[in-house]
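#structure-requests
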Amino acid sequence: MSEHSFVVEELKTRLDKYLAKQLPQISRSQIQRDIEGGQAEVNGQPIVESKFVVRLNDKVSYKQSADANRQTELKATNTPLKVLYNNHGLLIIDKPAGLTVHPGAGFKGETLASALLYHFKDIRVVGEDHRPGIVHRLDKDTSGVILVAKTQEMYEFLKDAFAERKIKKEYIALVFGKIEKRHGFIETPIGKSKTDFRKQTAKDPVLAKEAVTEYQVLEYLPTPTTPLASRGPLLEKEGRAAAGVDKYTLILVKLHTGRTHQIRVHLASTGHPLMGDELYGGKRTVLPGLHRQFLHAKKIEVRLPDNSWIEAESELADDLRKVLVDLNSKTVKEV
């Protein structure tokens, strides 16, 4: 792990931009991840926000993470992509559930990143080697819209737009139980779990960061009236834990920050985990016919450098739509 120290000679600038300027051999996205991981200090104080402003004569120290210099070989795969928008150096992709956005440790299968290399060969030089053009992510089992940059200029623009909260994102989610308050905000800080490396948490987190989730109730849904046993032994087993649930709530979610697993963590922290999300909600989230968390990135809006707005929507995935139909949803055609 390499260590770097600097004394700021500018009046004021963002910490991530300052370090990227001083260390051009390290990508800005890598620096941002290192900052969020607690690898930077300003005047001896740990800083975990990339947008933190450093000023003239501030002393900055940065510990370069071990993977900053690692080059990950990524091979193109002829994986089909549904493109919703392709212009101005910007792609908007409709990602299916089950497709990982970019490879992690030990993962060698098809990803959105490998598909992008096949369909848009020039994207290899944008962003980072192992995640070309990718500026944000969706969980593997979350479907819906995701932004991708085709040029380095758009990549930097989108990174700033996300950091400055100038991108609007909406999701459709089905949660356990009845959310009594029809509209509200969840603003509990989120950080890494001390007990489970797979999870983020809102309860006593490590390096907690501000997180804001807005929700609006679309519909309350009762448990299925059809006896589970009549659906066959497999579905009876899948639904046993859900059989005692009085209500489910279908909600529209708007993200005002973009923390890892934010929607999943925030809703679970209120006692209303996503249906199908056993990692955060346990067996009570099991629902017949649902084989992933019920979360779909429905809409995204971004303002381009010329100040025009681009908006793209994704239709609710077929597997999630079927779940709503089976629950006799009255709003299924509207989402």
